[in-house]
Amino acid sequence: MAPPLLELRQLAKSFGGARALRGVDFDLQAGEVHALLGENGAGKSTLIKIVTGAHQPDRGTIRVAGELVDHLTPATAHARGIACIYQQPALFPDLTVMENIALRLEAGAPFARVDWKGRRSRAVELLRRIGAEISPDAEVRSLSMPEQQLVEIACALGAGARIVIMDEPTASLTQKEQHLLFAVVRELRRSGVGVIYISHRLEEIFALADRVTVLRDGETVGTNPIAAINEAALIRMMVGREMTQIYPPSEAAPTEVALELRSLGCAEAGVTDVSFQVRAGEVFGLAGLVGAGRTELARILFGLTPADAGEIRLHGQVIHPRSAVEAVAAGIAYVPEDRRRHGVVLELPIAHNMTLAVQRRLFPRGWLRTEAEQSLALEFIRDLAIKCTGPDAPAGSLSGGNQQKVSLARWLATKPRLLILDEPTQGVDVGAKGEIHRIIRRLARSGLPVLLISSDLPEILGMSDRIGVMRAGRLVGVLPGGSDAHAVMAAALGQEQGAA
Amino acid sequence: MNRYLRELSVAGALGLLLLAMAIFAPGFYQPQPLLSLATREAPTLVVACGMALVILCRQIDISVGSQFSVCGVAAGLMAAAKVPLFLVVPAAIGIGALLGAINGVLIAGLQLPSIVVTLAMMVTLRQGLNLQQQGVFVNLPDGVQWFGLSQLQGQWLVVAIAVLLTVLLGLALRRLTAGRWVYAIGSDAEAARLAGIRPQLGTFLVFVVMGALTGFAAALNLVQAPQVQPLSGSGLELKVIAAVVVGGVAISGGRGNLWGVFVGLLLLAAIAPALIHLRIEAYWEKAIQGTIILLAVVTDSIRGRAPKHPARSH
């Protein structure tokens, strides 16, 4: 039997202190669709980046077609026939399909004569091979997302790709477009190409894949032929894990309803018919896969993409925030995800960051009162144990966990009536994570309703009094706190038994 | 003191220049020529303050030269029609604010790039003015020049007003919440929006203030001569942007202050008379100013690239 197209043995990779991969085994045969499955943060992206040469593994071996490769760069990966089709194709929108394909495939000397005829016939032939009805003269700008993906696949084939990686290719496709893509994937398989197929949609995996490998916490849990496994077993493989961290116990004695959503929806944000209640003093976790609509829901509540259906009641009062300003006035605090970009203003001192959302209250006459600002900042620095040289240090000089605390302090200073936390511990080290969890608990205990969005499943399970699970812009279930990971994951993946 | 390192280094350069003049060309220090220089530069300082606000907001306005000319000519025509000066000055400010508001609506409201909007504004205003004025100077009636005071009193008054305005604006930027918004918007408009600040409104208002200050500067210029030249403001935009950049305001927004701009303008303005007194050909002025600007930008870029010393915690 021929050696596998790709064989990974005991691959490991760490970023700083975080171990993204701990020892992954994986192999891909010619003419096979091999699905890769795992929850957010299981190590799929890191694995892909190693195979495409973007990252170097710390340990382990990579064999391509039986040959040991010890230093894979993007260029050598390309030369060995490894291609990756990303969810958002990286094409040049102003150039035609033919020109895009040519740019990928031609090692352009700056003054080489352009062989337009050759370019065209090659583009036509590649597009025909994958059965794509796209004109080689169409500008990429005018193509739909799946058509652009097909152009990417054509490029990959033209470059002689033997290993094609598809990362969530159907995430933004309609049903009909998906079928077109599936046909192309099957065509690739028939022609002897190996496809690594990453998707959260189990039904796709069962429809398309020959084998499936599940990753969890940077390790291979197992590889099975698709015929020998069912959905329940796959979900069990994805989540079956020990609790690795101790979460502060819930002490919620929930009282009156603080936040109530009734059939809330927003077409622009892709959120439909969401209804739930959060009680004062309760941590309501929002679970779901990336793109399930959790952040979008938070942005609706905060007025960034105003709702166009349903209603929001905060402490019994109907509100329609149409901007962040209105949401803040209504008492909503939103600590956004991606703190590095928008949670704090990196160039401003810590104290200025903390008072940014309360300037009107703290300085009613428009004068900055430095003493008031400093004492507020010192109070929060002490209260949240922010490690810094003082209130005048720029926020950009802090570690990630401390920046997150500054962001949190800014919103606590507003004395909010609803706190929305979006990925509060993403990219934060373990010590700071525990501190942030304790702060969240303390806030809830003081009667603040907290909406906690997190892709970290143990965090959701450990911190939430109740868990709302979202999928494709809808709330598909509300589970009690302390539910097991299996139930949450099943609901997030759209399996009936999980939706309670 | 670390916080003002950048401003202090410009002040140091100015100090060195003044020291060199004291040693090699003490003739530089004559009160009347220096006062005249300060008077001439006073309107530039006022415009530079506005430009600093605009650049702190991570925007740019290259139409200020044309705005300056339009406001100056309009104010001159009013004064020639015997409108009293205490109405002419507010009118110039109002016209400037209106022009700034047009820029502001297009930039903040429609989210168009400020460089393109103000380029269009610059060309349109300039050509419109040429068409209307055909290069003809506006002769001003008696009693307008130096506010009807003696030349010496008038000069002191112009300089005092410009410096006072700079100090007030500098304090406002530091001490008012509105000033904090300017920094927040320029550093990260999206973060500011998420913190409940209105970046679009803030940017719009900054352009209005820029226009109003330009109008006021045109009025300060009007009183310095018996007539108004329609070309008086050409090239002004480059001069003030240079002063702002040399003064340490980051062109990427969010960093800098008016004290630096003040010193930066002094440094650039002192070059020309210094050269005369040192008997160096005047052609060197622009070359030296250009070198100073390059130096400022290069040091800022090196400083900006230096690691931000993350505090080692945990």
Verbal overview:
The complex is a heterodimer of chains A (500) and B (314). Chain A is α/β, with parallel strands linked by helices. Chain A folds into two domains: 6-239, P-loop containing nucleotide triphosphate hydrolases (Rossmann fold); 257-498, 3-Layer(aba) Sandwich (Rossmann fold). Chain A contains 18 helices and 20 strands. In chain A, the strands form four sheets. In chain A, strands 6-7-8-3-9-10 form a six-stranded mixed β-sheet, with helices on both faces. In chain A, helix 3 (97-105) crosses helix 4 and helix 3 runs parallel beside helix 5. The longest helix of chain A has 16 residues, at 175-190. The radius of gyration of chain A is 25 Å and the shape is globular. Chain A starts with 5 loop residues before the first strand and ends in a 7-residue tail after the last helix. Chain B has a single domain, classed as ABC transporter involved in vitamin B12 uptake, BtuC (Orthogonal Bundle), CATH 1.10.3470. The model of chain B is unreliable at 306-314 (pLDDT under 50). Chain B has a two-stranded antiparallel sheet with strand order 1-2. Chain B is mostly helical and 314 residues long. Classes of the chains: A alpha/beta (500), B mainly alpha (314). Chain A binds chain B through residues 302, 304, 323-325, 327-329, 334, 336, 341-348, 352, 356-357, 359-360, 363, 366-368, 387-389, 393-394, 396-399, 401-402, 410, 429, 431-432, and chain B through 174-181, 183-184, 187-188, 190-198, 254-255, 308-314.
Radius of gyration of chain B (CA) equals 20 Å
Number of spatially distinct domains of chain A: 2
Helix content range of chain B:
over 70%
- State the oligomer: heterodimer
Query: Globular, elongated, flat, extended or rod-shaped: what is the shape of chain B?
Result: globular
CATH class of the largest domain in chain A: Alpha Beta
Q: Based on helices, strands and strand pairing, what is the structural class of chain A?
A: alpha/beta
The H/E string of chain B reads HHHHHEHHHHEHHH
The strand line-up of the biggest sheet of chain B is: 1-2
